[in-house]
Amino acid sequence: MLETIQEALSGFDQNYPEQTAQKCAILLDELGRWNRRMNLTAIRSAEEMVTVHILDSLSARPLLRGKRILDVGTGAGFPGLPLAIVEPDRSFVLLDSNNKKIRFVEHIAGLLGLGNVTAVNARTEDFAPGKRFDTVIARAVAALPRLVEMAGHHVGEGGLFVALKGRYPADELEQLPDTWGSNVTELKVPGLEAGSRHAVLIEHK
Asked: How far, CA to CA in Å, does 59 sit from each of 38, 42, 83?
């Protein structure tokens, strides 16, 4: 697993902190172990986990803005955990309404010593942190109009909402409220076919 991750990480033109591959390997090993007891993710193959969980998460790294990041509907910690591993100087709040998935996120944050991760078990609409975020990020949570309805209020002034999508979401973009501006960038994820991943960058007008 470690060698597979090390080789996979070299597919990005990114610099990584020490022990990034080791921490990602522990993350996926624990995910596989927990998955045998409770259903955290439908992906079972280790190779697919590297691509879909680690690389897909890290493809969004260059899009992050500012120091405070909110991962909405993080599930078992993606993209938040891999991003927190490679961005130790940024603080991440990983939010999900599923208690067992948040328990896993807390377990991993403790195991890997990720002091920059806070796991929160709450619905996005009910979450009241008292301060808005520089970047709000969400992967495969909801259609764009619903996403900004649920979590748009968490985006701070000058902040950015990064919605990670599969194919180009033309229909969803047409339904975005007029108060939001957007542009779309294609993400290159090693191991996934071209055109299969996009990020919608949404900002207050």
From this structure: 28, 21, 9
